[in-house]
Description:
By secondary structure, the chain is α/β, with parallel strands linked by helices. The protein is built from 10 helices and 18 strands.
Amino acid sequence: MSDEKQTFACRGPGTPAGPTLPVxxxxxxxxxxxxxxxxxGKVDFENWKGAADRPEPSPPAPLAPEKRLGVAIVGLGRxxxxxxxxxxxxxxxxRPVALVSDRPEKAQAVAQQYGIDPSAIYSYDEMAxxxxxxxxxxxxxVTPNGLHRDHVVAAAKAGKxxxxxxxxxxxxxxxxxxxxxxxxxxxxxxxxYRCQYELFNLEAARLTQSGELGLPRIIxxxxxxxxGPGDQWRMRAALAGGGALPDIGLYCLNGVRTMxxxxxxxxxxxxxxxxxxxxxxxxxxxxxxxxxxASGAIANCVTSYGAHECKDMQIRLEKGWVALxxxxxxxxxxxxxARRHGEGEEVKEVRLSPKDQFTLEIxxxxxxxxxxxxxxxxxxxxxxxxxLMEAIYRSAxxxxxxKIDLVSAHPPVPAxxx
Length: 418
């Protein structure tokens, strides 16, 4: 279209003097814009939308089922059944091929739902037998924290790559054992920090690290929820390691590190627990902790099992702010950005086409295993968070700041490198 000013008139198709609509159907050869093209086994289409609208994404190009990474799901609790197994339905690079559970009836029902061979169901004590199943390339550990070490070690001994839920274990020493076991077996170990792969979190990190809004000065990260009955595994220290901090506060800790692309140099924390609540005899309810960074940024984080659900993050920078609503939730993310606009302030919302963060995480793992690439969140990333959480617990116990003088086990991957 020329740069001439567009004019409009009541003429042309559908108007009194123009061609009559509708038109009867007849076969005509399609144009290339509708047919698309094939390159390296992938189909792609020319963008059919105008420049003012977001272009439609390219069609998915999944691997053939037999070429996808075969994954055994270890543990069939709520997270596996509500989030992880459904995420495999959208995966382009991986598929579930086996289940590990000590509940045969449940495992058989799930196997039938996902087309998994009943002979590929194992109990936890039978994980060594996975070595005999060539369809299993990797395992996804989704058991309570206190069982992660034993299950990761068993998977490594069976020669299988490992994707393990966060927190990696109960302690830093257990994390080190898991890393050593996977290295000895020459298998990859990734920790399932799903938010690192979620698109709104990635865009917020890109913007924060880009310098577009100046240097980040203050970050506020909140992850709270109201906990229910006390007989669940999360309230038992031997299975959970701790309470709100390793379960949901870890998202604040890892999220701040990922957002800044930087490691803290000091932590200060306080813990508050309700009196006479039997649920909090072994684990903590509420933790507030601050992280200080060499760049001058300060992060104020709070996590609790006793406050109404909130999973938000705000980054205050020199020239504006970034607000990420539901930053740590499974869905519902909203990203807003504020900056000066003349004599006022402009606040705009960034809208992205959402994708399942569990699927994105699984496909990154599969990509790295299938092509021997470097993981963004390897075992060393999980170890680093355990070292920092132990410093947070120490600070709360001693009532004073704790300096972090250790060499980072895994510095955060810059947003531009993801």
